[in-house]
Amino acid sequence: MSSQTDSPAGAEVSSPSTPVPNEMRPPPVFAFARLLEPQYLLVVFSALGIIWLGAHGSLRRPPSAAPPKLKKGEKRREDEKFVEGLVASDAIRYPIMLAAVLIGLYYLIQWLQDPTIINRALRGYISIMAIAGVGALAGDSLDNLTSLVFPTMWADSNGLVYYIDPDRRCQYVVNKSGEETIVKGKETPLPGLLSYLVSSAASRRYLWELRHLITGEWTVRLAVSGKSLVKFDLRATDLLRFTIAGAFTLAYHMTAWSALSNLVSIAMCYVTFMMLSPTSFPIGTMVLASLFVYDVVMVFYTPYMITVAKNIDAPIKLVFTSAKGASMLGLGDIVVPGMLMGLALRFDLFQHYQRQTKLEPVELTTESKSQTSPEDATVTTTTTTKTTQHRRVKVPYVDTRGQWGNRFWTTRLGRLLPVPEAADAIAATAFPKPYFYASVAGYAAGMFVTLTVMLVSNHGQPALLYLVPGVAGSLWLTGLLRGELGDMWGYTEDGSMDTVDVVVKVDGEGRVVKEGGGEKRDGGSGEAEGEGEAEAKGVGEAADEDEDEPRGAPSRRELFLFSVTAPRAAAPA
């Protein structure tokens, strides 16, 4: 995990054992001026761009939000969970594992005396693994592109929000009392000025069908001997993502072009943010601190890091070249601090929904029985006590998928945020992000310090030496200044905070002072969600039975069936 560059003369970077004499090193002022060169600015902004994409791609329903409300006929998406949540023991396990791999590659290079064989093997392995990364990045990019063409809302120059209804194939507005009014003359799924370009009924009908084919779910079914073995739903973008991923990874494997290598590296970072994250801020800080020590030792006190980084030609780093040299940034310098920055963004989202949580009064009745024994008989007395508690009611979560197009079309020219009436776009994309922005500032400062020291010393630097204090320090300092260190310390994504029907006690000012027992949410399923799933499940099971065992035709039986059913919207009555 190092950042390094060729010297101004084009010579190779000096190793730790052969430091550059002081008289040959550029002065600090000259080194600082070189930071404005394109290759160094590309390093900084590329790393920040990847982290921004990965952090926003990792957003999912926080424990402070209720499951989203379902529309009629809509299936609930399962809450996305990380494949692996980092725990405290990973602070020891990860540096040991990385050191073993790095040292093994170093001695393998020394033994073979030619890294070509290793590069071919790594490129082949990573080409297969990159399909998932490129597919995830391409799929989310296609979703955002689709939402730009077919959003669900848009705002005119006066701030009036128009909602696009695919079921009724119309556009409508909502007044202050919540009443819907269909807008005449706007029977197209296109937003803004684009809605005026389509005039014929046939063109509008074609656009609605196209929108449904792209955004709707396709059903793939494989049946043998009348029994469904495989049945799942996917969208048109899911089909395209794997096609794009296969084409890009095949092109990279065949050509080893540096631009494709950078693209594959970006995709690998992106999918890592989806799969790996610390479960809390203390654990994330511990993991970063341990990798901080690992990076310093491997770069400054061993030849392993720089030797391997210079000899391995595989998508494990970002490389930017120019006429004056080349700059290189290991993917670990993006992923390691980026994991904590993604956690900071999800903490911002958690706080956004937590501020909207309402407390509803609940009257609790308690009966207590007591027995008295007079001289004649035993008398049982029942005492009823009524107390008023408060139940925490969470706001339904707004899925981020499709909301970036809504944000674009509801943001007026010259503004950065959507109009206030676009509540869904604001909740999904424009919520306050103080912790994430603080970590971005800390990362950018750490990167500039890394490059400055590297240019002054003319030696590869362990980027985590500067990035870890910048990111972790900025987050904990933000929590201190905002008086939320306790909230940061207590926040966790291990599922223990995702509860429903929580009864809490409040003080005289309405602040929560104590939480009662709540039912733990299993995968984001509450009572309302269970009813929706049961209804959807019942419909699905009935459909399966009709497909697997068709009634009225006992003499015919499916031996083998593979079908792909495209979505088709029924024309409005």
TrEMBL record:
Comp. bias (Basic and acidic residues): 511-524
TM spans (from-to): 40-59, 91-109, 121-139, 256-276, 283-306, 326-345, 435-457, 463-481
Statement: the UniProt record of this protein carries the keyword Amino-acid biosynthesis: no
Pfam families attached to this UniProt entry: Peptidase_A22B
UniProt topology in membrane: Multi-pass membrane protein
Predominant cellular place of this UniProt entry's protein: endoplasmic reticulum
Gene Ontology MF annotations: aspartic endopeptidase activity, intramembrane cleaving
Cellular component per GO, a single term: lumenal side of endoplasmic reticulum membrane
Cross-referenced InterPro entries: Peptidase_A22B_SPP, Preselin/SPP
Chain spans, region Disordered: 1-22, 362-386, 511-559
Biological processes, Gene Ontology terms: membrane protein proteolysis; signal peptide processing
Biased composition (Polar residues): 365-375
Family the UniProt entry places it in: Belongs to the peptidase A22B family.
Name of the protein this chain belongs to: Signal peptide peptidase
Source species: Parathielavia hyrcaniae
